[in-house]
Amino acid sequence: MSRYLLIILFSIFTVAAQANQPCLEISEPEIQKWMSIQPPMPSFFDLYKAKKIIDAEQKTALKLGNDKRAHCYLGCRISDDIDYQTADYVGWQKEFNDATDCNPNTRFDKADYVATLVGAKKSKQKNIKSSCATYCKKKY
Question: Does residue 6 register a pLDDT over 80?
């Protein structure tokens, strides 16, 4: 009886351990490298504000013509309304989620993160007077 109980418990723990493993779209060394550049996490309030911006601006971002423009635009909007650090973190986290979410409809792309940073840097460049949409259309 105890032998069967051990087999059942071992099976449960094995399944639970497998369920806790993220689905990695990229290799373990690549995920470790990605983790090594993780920006500091902003405040929960800033993350909440960023989420509100993304929800409000996502349709506009997607209408800009391509994925890189959308990332650039959202990075720019978050940086304009909150700060560069929040845009950096949100862009990094989005790609981390894409790499580990087990969703075949998303994909990890470092260039998406770079596009987010390009948009976020726009607000730091005071000599650029164009809107986020116009700026990102020119860049991508």
Answer: no
